[in-house]
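Following up on my earlier message about adenosine monophosphate. Here are the inputs again, as you asked, copied directly from the submission form:
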Amino acid sequence: MKIFKSVSEFTQFRKSLTNMKIGFIPTMGNLHQGHLSLVKSSLSQTKLTIVSIFVNPLQFGENEDFGEYPRTLDKDLEKLKSLDKNNIVVFAPSSAQEIYPENFSSKILTMGMDDKLCGTTRPGHFEGVTTIVFILFQLVRPHLAFFGMKDFQQLSIIKKMVKDLYLNVEIVAHPIIREESGLALSSRNQYLSNTERELALNLLESLKLKKELILKDKNYLLDQSLPKLPKECRWDYLNIVSQNTLRPATLTDKKILIAGAMFVGTTRLIDNLTLDLTC
Ligand code: AMP
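Thanks, got it. Here's what our run produced:
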C-alpha cells in the first residue's frame, strides 16, 4: 500500500494517474468501522481509493481537543491494508505545516448552514472543514468523495460548497455505523469510561423519543424542548430541523433531521436521525 506524507510527493504521484476512476475518503484517522464502511464503498465503485489522514487544526476551537485527538497512524494503516493492499493509497501529511505553510492565508466559507446546530457552539469549525476539504479535493482530484451521515451538517455544507463552486466531484453519503448498543461509532468514544459509554446512550434515546412523538403527532415537529438528562450529561443542542436548510422544522417540511450534541463529562458526542414524512 502506497503512503505519502508530503504534498509534493503526493502531487507527483497524482499526476501519474490517468484515466482512472478515483474515490476519496477524507478522515482525521483513528479509523473505525464507520470510516472503513466508506472505504469499502469506494473500493466497490472506483479503481483507486485515496484515504487522507490528517488531524486538521483549522477545525478545532481554542478549548477543544486538538492536542488529545487520538493519532494512531500505524494501526490505521494496518486496518486499511487488511481491506485491500493494492487499491488503496494513503495521504497522511506529516505535519500541519505540510498543508498550511507559514504564509498560508486563504479560507473557504460556505455560509447559511454554518451557524446552526454544531455551528452555534463551534464558531469557525465549518470554515476549517470546508477549507481543508477544498484543499484536499484540489490535491486528490477525486471523481467520487465519500462522507458519513453521522456528520450530517458537515455533509450538507460540503454538498453546498461543491455546488456553489462548481467543483467537479460527486459526493456520496453513507449511513451511520453504530455499535450493537446503538452508540454511533466515533473516534471520541475512546475518551469515555464504561459508565460514560452507558450514559452516552441517552443521546440516541432522546433522538428516538423525539422521532416517535413526531410520528404520533406532527405538531411535535415544532417542539424544540430538551429532554431531561442524568446529571453527568448536558445538552449542547437538540434540534428538529429541515434536512434541506437545517432551519427549525415547520409543519410543511417533509425531510426532517433530528440532530443532537451532548456532553458526557467533558466529551462531546453528536448523533442524528432522519425522518421522511413524504407519505
Ligand atoms: P472523521 O475522521 O471524524 O473526520 O470522519 C471522517 C469521515 O468518516 C466523515 O465523513 C464522517 O462522517 C465519517 N464517519 C465518522 N464516524 C462515522 C460513523 N459512525 N458512521 C459513518 N460514517 C462515519
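One observation from looking it over: The chain is about 35% helix and 20% strand. Hope that helps, and feel free to reply on this thread.
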